[in-house]
Amino acid sequence: MVPYQTKTDKLAGSNFQEVYKKALSVYKPIKQRTKRQTYIRSVYFKKEKIFLNIFWNHLFDKSWGERTKRLQYFACAIDLIKNSRNQPTSKENPNKSGEILHRFAGLTKQKELFFVQIKENKKSGNKYLMSVFPGD
C-alpha cells in the first residue's frame, strides 16, 4: 500500500478542546453544503459520496486522549479522501459479512503516517468514514 502525501498538516493543539475547535472549522463548511447527511466526494471511488456522520459517533466512543490523537488527523483525512488515487487495502468486515473495509494510508505534510478507514455497505453501496488514526 502506497501512502498518499497530503498537502495539509495535522491539527495543532495540546488538548481535546483546542483540536476540536480546529476540526469543526474544517468540518463546518462541508456540513453547510447540504441539508441532509454530510458527505465529501472521493476521487478513488469515482466521485461517489463518503458520508461523515459515523466518524463522529465512533470518535466519541474513545477516551479523551485517543479522541485528541485521532482528531488531529481529521483535516489530513479529508484531503486524502478527496484527492487520493492510491489503492487501499480492502477486506470483508470479519464482524459483518455485508460490509467491506477499505484502509487508506497517508502522510501528513510533516511525513507522519496515518490511516483512514472507510466502511462500504455491500447491499446499498454507501460508503462511510469510520476512523482516522495514527500509524504508530
Describe this structure in words.
The chain has 136 residues and is an alpha/beta fold. It has one domain (4-134). Helix content is 30%, strand content 29%. The protein has helices at 16-31, 53-59, 64-71, 74-83, and strands spanning 4-5, 39-42, 48-51, 89-92, 99-107, 113-121, 127-134. Strands 1, 2, 3, 4, 5, 6 and 7 form a 7-stranded mixed β-sheet that branches.
Summarize the model shown.
By secondary structure, this protein is α/β, with parallel strands linked by helices. Helices cover 30% and strands 29% of the residues.
Strand fraction equals: 25-35%
**Residues in helix, %:** 25-40%
Computed over alpha carbons, the radius of gyration is 14 Å
In DSSP terms (H or I, runs of 4 or more residues), the helix count works out at 4
**Would you list the SSEs in sequence order as H and E?**
EHEEHHHEEEE
By secondary-structure content and strand pairing, the structural class works out as alpha/beta
Number of strands: 7
How many separate domains? 1
* Distance from first to last alpha carbon: 16 Å
The major beta sheet can be summarized as: 7 strands, mixed
Note the overall shape: globular
Q: Are there runs of 5+ residues with pLDDT below 50, and where?
A: none
* Overall mean confidence score, pLDDT: 94
Keywords, separated by commas or semicolons:
136 residues; 7 strands; seven-stranded mixed sheet
